[in-house]
Amino acid sequence: xxxxxxxxxxxxxxxxxxxxxxxxxxxxxxxxxxxxxxxxxxxxxxxxxxxxxxxxxxxxxxxxxxxxxxxxxxxxxxxxxxxxxxxxxxxxxxxxxxxxxxxxxxxxxxxxxxxxxxxxxxxxxxxxxxxxxxxxxxxxxxxxxxxxxxxxxxxxxxxxxxxxxxxxxxxxxxxxxxxxxxxxxxxxxxxxxxxxxxxxxxxxxxxxxxxxxxxxxxxxxxxxxxxxxxxxxxxxxxxxxxxxxxxxxxxxxxxxxxxxxxxxxxxxxxxxxxxxxxxxxxxxxxxxxxxxxxxxxxxxxxxxxxxxxxxxxxxxxxxxxxxxxxxxxxxxxxxxxxxxxxxxxxxxxxxxxxxxxxxxxxxxxxxxxxxxxxxxxxxxxxxxxxxxxxxxxxxxxxxxxxxxxxxxxxxxxxxxxxxxxxxxxxxxxxxxxxxxxxxxxxxxxxxxxxxxxxx
Length: 455
Fold this sequence. Notes:
With 455 residues, this protein is of the alpha/beta class. The protein folds into two domains: 1-37 and 215-265, no CATH class; 52-211 and 272-454, Alkaline Phosphatase, subunit A (3-Layer(aba) Sandwich), CATH 3.40.720.10. Helices cover 31% and strands 13% of the residues. It is built from twelve helices and 16 strands. An eight-stranded mixed sheet has the order 8-7-9-3-10-13-6-14, with helices on both faces. It has a two-stranded antiparallel ribbon with strand order 1-2. Residues 1-42 have low confidence and may be disordered.
């Protein structure tokens, strides 16, 4: 385990002379310093009005990192022929009459009454970074300000502005940050997500700063006792405000490590049957962890589901990944519903774009699909979104929007509305500009309107 000398850690050396902290302990203290927390310089986050009670309390965003093919998932086009469908040309009927989805999603087909499909998402951007930014913020890349993601905005309005004081930060990413954009944008570190790291599919989910491989709870207790024994300055100056703040941060950190709050990440508390239903893989167990975080009241959870940038070996990858996605996502919807949580939890499935409808058979791709932002699909369930509907349509080959274009800001604004966030409210920013939660006509951003068809 890496160790950090305390003398290299500003603000800590004064309280714990001569002690060396483990990386895990340092991360814990940093976590609470950042998430409980500190304000970016010059930015007052007291301005926003707290969100009003909405139909939804939490969001689980299934982020299909890299961009999934709409033709192979929720917008199949069997009549387009082999050059478009490849070996996946037999879509299956869903539980909802008239709805068909990809042949490798039989479990999701049985849950179709719980979700609605948007088949006309569009922004026209084919680069990962800028497309991710557009879908995650609802804004145009390259503007004067770097806008915050949906998770950061929800963290602000449903976390900080409501006096959220849970030990678990209000914005969690399972398990790695996307790395394509700044999640917090101009709102700064206070609303930056906590990425768990680790792998929930492993025997022990080693959450960064909370759970360490090879370190038992008893060893952690012993370390804490040693910490107190060596804290001579703290004993000598018990009334010092800065040392009291440090002591409070330490108590919170250890409550997360050893107390009830941190147990949310201990998936061994679940029955083997439910873990098997989700699938014993990283995505399936991430879905289970997300459900547990929702039960704890965390407002925003992103599952960063990697591996969908399928330029080569597209169909081989689909045959491996789609069954995992099918099992994990279908079980998540069913489990939330059975526990009475789906009515208050939005599940949002999407990537930054789709894939080229026409398969790229030529070298060097040899049967891959490229980036495609002209039209793609998204799925919404729960939290006030009605299930069993299809919004919009692509053309007969999935190459253009045929009906009812839906832009990222339309979807995001609909999510905010169901969460009780005032979409016309102001966002604090370092330049003091009049910035609203969602774009206005003055921003000159394409809009198709809120998703009233399913709200």
